[in-house]
Amino acid sequence: MKAHDGMYIGGEWRPAHGRDTITVVNPADERVVGQVPAGDAGDVDDAVRAARAALPGWAATPPAERAARIAALRDVLAARQDEIAETVTAELGSPLPFSRSVHAALPVAVAGSYAELAASHTFEETLGNSTVLHEPVGVVGAITPWNYPLHQIVAKVAPALAAGCAVVLKPAEDTPLTAQLFAEAVHEAGLPAGVFNLVTGLGPVAGQALAEHEGVDLVSFTGSTAVGARIGAVASAAVKRVALELGGKSANVILPGADLARAVHVGVANVMANSGQTCSAWTRMLVDAERYEEAVALAAAALAKYVPGERIGPVVSAKQRARVRGYIEKGVEEGARLVVGGPEAPLERGYYVSPTLFADVTPDMTIAQEEIFGPVLCVLRYEGVEDALRIANGTVYGLAGAVWAADDAEAVAFARRMDTGQVDINGGRFNPLAPFGGYKRSGVGRELGPHGLAEYLQTKSLQL
């Protein structure tokens, strides 16, 4: 068991103000694997003060030097990938191969991209008789979720550091051990004291204190839409900026003439990744009426390969398992056809949910409208391209999606009409430089690449 008794504040590990702790449980076998302090408002205040003290020096550091520090952090993360993967597997339950290939490797790539952007970004430009400066927004309060614990940390901290900001991180209470490893990596990389600070704690206590703190200039939050709305309200009361990456109910639209077998295969893999705990997962598969039953059969065959405890891990907690099972029961109650899976526990131990496939799902059903955040795929039927577009755009969310067609031009034409922030065209590859973020209730702002860096900058113009 990994037991931590301190917060990383001002470049050193300090005891927490209180004695409360958070117990970390491995969702695959329900064993206790760690313990961290449950920080309070006093810990948050210490961290924010340390960040404010470090801010002027870091903001004045030349971008090339900031880039070198971020590159050093990337190198430390790369050297510790095995340890990171094992830690994520222990506290999230992710199968080790997925932890290695995604949870540990992706943050290294993202950190590297910001090392390059810090060195190449134009922080000053001339417009007519004005010099326009792009300056750090200040102290950033970063509140991260449990589903991709290290990636979400790096996707906030790396651009903030590249911009010249100082950061206070409050990670999710379900997966704080990965955040502790990240703080160790920051220290090993030699970032100046106070530029990065870590406070572990509960959302309603430490998270709220961070969002409310007068010394925080921007709050960057990833998580549920309901919590994001509360954070937005708290931040707006102090007229501070927010960046919110929230929920999703993304559509995987398979147009007539598309390669159905490939579209279904990739679509199922997308939903099952990380046990369905991905905000951008394509949880609604839209298929034309003529090929609908063929698609359902293909999806059922693909889903059968995701064996709990082998190819697919558990969900993060007993609470999350109960939530997902509740949605499965709701789907059956509302008349969807249960093709594969169901609410019954597939294993005696661990927070596992059976990979589940629903057919005959109508757009008004709860499972077609609300984010389930588990290994559940809904297949919807459409009658014509305009009907597909209506269904795809017919939720309060707009985070991601996919379009499959006979050629890229047809898919792009459809994607241009989708109300969503990111669309994969015929299986397009992930791009860590492309902006990621949502329309509608899926959020405000963008992460990754130059657009992610811009979130942490504010603009000043000098008229000459």
UniProtKB/TrEMBL annotation:
The keyword Cell cycle does not apply. It comes from the Bacteria. Signal peptide: none annotated. Pfam families: Aldedh (PF00171). InterPro entries: Ald_DH/histidinol_DH, Ald_DH_C, Ald_DH_CS_GLU, Ald_DH_N, Aldehyde_DH_dom. The lineage of its organism: Bacteria, Bacillati, Actinomycetota, Actinomycetes, Kitasatosporales. Residues 13-461 form the Aldehyde dehydrogenase domain. GO terms for molecular function: oxidoreductase activity, acting on the aldehyde or oxo group of donors, NAD or NADP as acceptor. Keywords: Oxidoreductase. The active site is at E245. This is Aldehyde dehydrogenase family protein. Belongs to the aldehyde dehydrogenase family. The keyword Oxidoreductase applies.
